[in-house]
Amino acid sequence: MAEQKPNAPARDRYAIRRSPGPHPSGVHQVTEYQDPGYTIVGNHLTQHRSLSGLAIGLAAYIQSLPEGAPVDIRTLAKRFPEGRDRIAAALRELEAYGYLERVRRRTDDGRVVTLTISYNNPQATRARRARETAEQAKRRTAVEPPRPSPDPARTPTPVPNPPRVRTSPRPVRTEAPRVRAEPSPPPPEPRTRAHHSPAAALLANLRRDDPRLLLSVRDIQRLTPPVAAWLERGATPDAIRSALTTTLRHPAALLAHRLTELLPPPLPAASPIDPPRDRPSPLQTCDGCDRAFRAPAPGRCRECRHPAAAESVATGPG
Questions:
Q1: Quick one: the chain helix, strand, coil %, rounded to 5?
Q2: In-domain check, residue 267
Q3: Is 127 helix (H, G, I), strand (E, B) or coil?
Q4: Residue 143 or residue 297, greater confidence
Q5: Angle between helices 196-204 and 237-244 (to 10 degrees)
Q6: Which residues, 6+ apart, have CB-to-CB distance to 117 below 8 Å?
Q7: Spatial separation of the C-alpha atoms in residues 150 and 32, rounded to whole Å
Q8: What is the helix (H) or strand (E) element at residue 236, kind and residue range?
Q9: In a shared domain, residues 133 and 200
Q10: Residue 102: its H or E element
Q11: Are 90 and 83 in contact (CB under 8 A)?
């Protein structure tokens, strides 16, 4: 019994399997001091229950980049092993939950580029903008002078009615008939429902130009037919947006008034001599390179659909 066993395991091997802390399983954090060059990411992003792991990783990577760094789909596909389709889907997830915003801008030389805005805390940004809007509304009401209260010293004292004296009847005066004000015309209605979806999207995006233009669902449903009538008569979305976005006190009522009173005339019928002019397709964001191009539906640009033809045209013969 006292004989030693040389093949018995050492005691320190069992110590490795012991729990490093009070929790027997799960993650164990080893925190070290880091030099300058780190990024603070909130738990609302890293522990988001609806975002995929790729979307969370892309959001953390984009937040760690310096200002002005390229974050288009083609650049991210070169940086990470995932393909363009998965990266494009992850960016759409971040855009849906408010962590990214892609805005199309036109440069001085006429090119259309995509500006990507990254929000490290979308909820805090929305709350701050709401507070700023409320403060602006308070300042506007504070600037307006209050109505003067009636001065009791200047208020005239009522005079008792004098006794009535019977006089001869006066001739009856015939008054001219009052001219009634013409009723306001009804809001315009489109002939088809082809422009209802872009009209509703235009009204919903007016709040980006002016925070006070945050319309309710009922107001958007009421104002969609007049905007669709404008689009049906050839007005561009930029022209409608510039006609509606000004200083407002009652947004929905003033928009309804302007859509009715400033309705452009219908387009004249095309003569048989003049060929019909096709309306340009709307701008779309390429799912392959994140550049803006004109197409009737979202998808890929010509260079991403046919990369071999684009390279041969760029290099040229020989």
A1: 40, 5, 55
A2: no
A3: helix
A4: 297
A5: 40
A6: 100, 101, 102, 103
A7: 72
A8: none
A9: no
A10: strand 100-106
A11: no
Quote the CA–CA distance of 67 and 72 in Å, as a whole number.
14
212: confidence class by pLDDT, cuts 50, 70, 90? confident
Q: What is the pTM assigned to this prediction?
A: 0.43
Is residue 153 in some structural domain?
Answer: no
The two counts, helices (H) then strands (E), for the chain are 12, 4
- pLDDT of 181 strictly over 60: no
The CA–CA distances, whole Å, from 167 to 61, 163, 164, 170, 295 equal 97, 13, 9, 8, 87
225 part of a folded domain: yes
Q: Torsion angle of alpha carbons 179, 183, 185, 186, nearest 10°?
A: -160
In which domain, by residue range, is 68 found?
38-104+117-137
56 & 132 share domain: yes
Cα(310)–Cα(307) distance, integer angstroms: 5
- The number of beta carbons lying within 10 Å of the beta carbon of residue 182 is 6
Euclidean distance between CA atoms 312 and 307, whole angstroms = 9
Between 217-232 and 196-204, two packed helices, what is the crossing angle to 10 degrees?
A: 130
> What are the phi and psi torsion angles at 117 (to 5°)?
-110, 125
As for how many domains the chain has, the answer is 2
Distance CA 120, CA 59 (A): 8
